[in-house]
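This entry is set out below.
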Amino acid sequence: MVDRPQAAAPTVERPAPWGALVRLAVTLLFLLAGALVSPPAVAADPPPAAAAGPVHVRVGLYMLNVGKYDLGTGTFTVDFYLSLRSDTDMGDQRFEFMNGRGTSDKLVDTPTEKFYRCQVNLMTNVNLQRFPFDEHELPVILEHVTRTTRDLVYEVDDAQTGVDAEVKLVGWALKGYTAATREHDYPPYRESYSQYCYRLKIGRVLLITSLKTFLPVICFLLVTFVSLLLTVEKLDGKLGMNTAMLIASVMFHIAITGSLPPVGYLTIADRVLVATYSTIALNTVLTVMMLRLVTRKADGGARRLRDRAFAIVPAFAVAAYLFALFMP
């Protein structure tokens, strides 16, 4: 058997990778053309920056009523309208009263205006050095709870500030009001807050207060001066008159100071009554000296001392009262 020669396996020629290269080149050309034709990307606008500086809020306070003013504790009550206005959104407006506590009802609430009805119990320091001619200020001090002067500044709104004509305070006369703003620093916290300060000024009714305080003093002095007219034969009666006036003036002084809180200084009323004590005491001492002279049978000396007392006692009284009234 003759073996047939086997045919060689046919050789398959692989196509050259030119097609893939062409497709890759076309894709790159399309991408490059798209990049050249498309408009350049615009960067997004940055978020708007916060407004520079603090918000300015105009504050107005219109007083409606003032309750009892207690000199013993310095406390008082007030009822008023409070207006907050701004040209921009004022944001959070939580406030507090720095010299007391109270309640507030919000009547208007918009981004640029807020309006409240407030009823507050407040307190102040009492200065009675010029009693019974003393005047006092009843302050309402307003401050934001959390926003410092970097964020919020108060300004006075004169158009919304005032006192109602029906405001009355028994025993006192209204002397007007002031409104101002200030910065209050807290050094331990290194913070500063804007404060709105409204001050209602009151004073005593001068005519009524002067009569109630000084009319008894005038009566004491009148009796003391009348006793100067008694002769040396009536010195016992003169001594009794001056002793009675001295006791009466002391009791009157106790009655006056009983209506006032304890203070560490002399008021005008205190100084006037001390001058009264001194004048009556001087007349009493002169009367005792006259009695001693009469007891020693020196009637001439007693009469001469009596004559001098007409000049000594009034001159001393004038000097004592001038010092009491005008002593700084």
